[in-house]
Amino acid sequence: MSNLIIHLLQSAIGIGLFYGVYWLLLRNMKWFSLNRILIILFLLLSVLLPFITISGQVPVIPVELHSMEVMNTSSSVSNPQSEMSHGTGISYISILSIIYISGATFFLLRFFYSLLQLTVMYVCSPRVRKNNFIVVLRPGKQSPFTFFNLLFVSEEKFYSENFHKILLHESVHHKQWHSLDNIVLELISIIQWFNPFVWLFRKALKTQHEYLADRSVINKGVCRLSYQKILFEESVGVALNLTSNFHYSLLKQRLKMMTLEKNKNKEYIRYLLLAPMVLVVSLFLMGHSGSNAIANDPIDAAPEYKEGQENLMFYLQSNARYPQTARKNNLQATVYVNFEVAASGEVNKIWVAENAHDAHALFDELIVVAQGSSGTPSEATSGSEALEDMQTEAVRLVEGLGDFTPARYNEAPVKAIVCLPVTFVVQ
Prior knowledge:
Elements: H1 2-25, H2 32-48, E1 53-55, E2 61-62, H3 80-85, H4 92-123, E3 127-130, E4 133-138, E5 145-147, E6 150-154, H5 155-158, H6 163-175, H7 178-191, H8 196-219, H9 224-233, E7 244-245, H10 251-259, H11 264-285, E8 287-289, E9 304-305, H12 309-319, H13 324-328, E10 331-341, E11 347-353, E12 366-370, E13 378-379, H14 385-399, E14 404-405, E15 407-409, E16 412-414, E17 416-426
Parallel strand pairs: 1-8, 2-17, 4-6, 10-13, 12-17
Antiparallel strand pairs: 3-4, 5-6, 5-7, 9-14, 10-11, 10-17, 15-16
């Protein structure tokens, strides 16, 4: 879940950066079709690029954290309450996950509710065919809107003399597949519901749709003043998220765009500036992978246990236990468990090593002490069942650690290999 949260945050930052690019360079440009494509491209890049990884050599640094006191235990039987004490509280990630899933569920249900509304209006209303549309006649006063080839319009407006102008406007939404844009936008909004910039992009894209439709109507010879009058008149009615609405807001800006002349030199310069800015944001969004080779370069900050060193020590003291097979046979050994703290802070790739040569110890030594039976302690052989149980126990301790704050190198999070040496001693 933590990786998903990281990707969501990267996407959110990308959407914010791309919206800044749009606001600075594109929002007042009259290349509406290109602006529409770029908005969809920006949103898709923001969602998809964090899942793409660039291969390269990223330093994976052996790390030695602060030393910790020796832990002793004299019982091979674990305490259930002690084992439950670590991680029973709800973590910040869990809280964030619950909030995110709740919000995404709400907006997903809203999406289905909009589809249900359209279905009910379609089923419960009379319908006629007009040009390429199925016209759904609605009672009362309602501003026209389209959803693919469905045109929802009031009966009064359908029989009015201005209907052909409305039909010209809505035909643009239909022919250019603006409803598909709206669905893509709605799905991204469900994923990024917490991000204010995705809602600004929604407004920007719907505005570009209306610019395109307005320009098409004027270019087909409709009187600008009479068309603008219709826009003012059609300012009431239902407006669904998935539809292209004739009366969509920002009328003042739409009227301004009808009369604004293109400044080609200015627009060419802005679109030339667009390419490097998009490239920089795209590279920022991509992940980076590296080999597991040990790097000799120093790190700026070592990984730290997210819940603090005291909680780390408490967890180990509460949960470490001596395997019974080793205790009964008075067997002792030191097990070196290496693990990777990923750039996201997660513990990955846990393995048993021969020594701590490739990674410094998490702390000086974790000693698990048990009372043995009478006799002299002996070294556990590499193939013994007891040693395998010791290794399994050491790996289990690492698996339950939880997340770290990742190491940092050149102000960027990087992977780091850490070792937990566990010494099992029989007294």
